[in-house]
Amino acid sequence: MNDLTIGPGTQVTLHFALELEDGSVVDSNFDREPVTFVMGDGNLLPGFEEALLGLQAGDEKSFVIPPEKGFGPYNPENIQEFRRVDFPTDVELAEGLVLSFADAQSNELPGVIQEFDERTVTVDFNHPLAGRDIEFSVRIIDVNPAVTH
After folding, report:
1. Domains of the chain, first to last
2. Are 53 and 67 in contact (CB under 8 A)?
3. pTM as predicted
């Protein structure tokens, strides 16, 4: 271990857990191999990276990440209604089903079926964690200078 602190240009190896306000675990690798990433490489949302700044190998900490710095606020305008006939007949719709849609630029966009009937299908395009405070717990395993190629 060294005494390098997490900042721009560092490679970080850590264990993490993401939990909701009610304590339910969204994701955790504390029981698996740690992950390694370079600060600023786009693997973590900026709010999660910001929480890590200044930590060192051996540090353990928990932070609450608000929606604005995490998965964004919940936006009611991201709920859209489609005609049922626009869905393939071989797709069995169910509330909570995640389907892939194409946006105007043909990018893949996941949407969650909220409700449906014979005529309409309501789809929520918000991130499932939008509008939620997330508790982010980390154990820093190692911090090294990033290797650039």
Report:
1. 10-71+132-145 (3.10.50.40), 76-124 (2.40.10.330)
2. no
3. 0.77
What confidence tier does 149 reach under pLDDT thresholds 50, 70, 90?
low
Order of strands, edge to edge, in the sheet holding 79-83? Answer: 79-83, 120-124, 108-116, 98-102
Task: Write the DSSP string, 20-81.
Answer: -TTS-EEEE-TTSPPEEEETTSSSS-HHHHHHHTT-BTT-EEEEEEPGGGTT----GGGEEE
Q: What is the pLDDT of residue 53?
A: 96
Give first-to-last CA distance, the chain, whole Å: 24
Coil/strand/helix, residue 4: coil
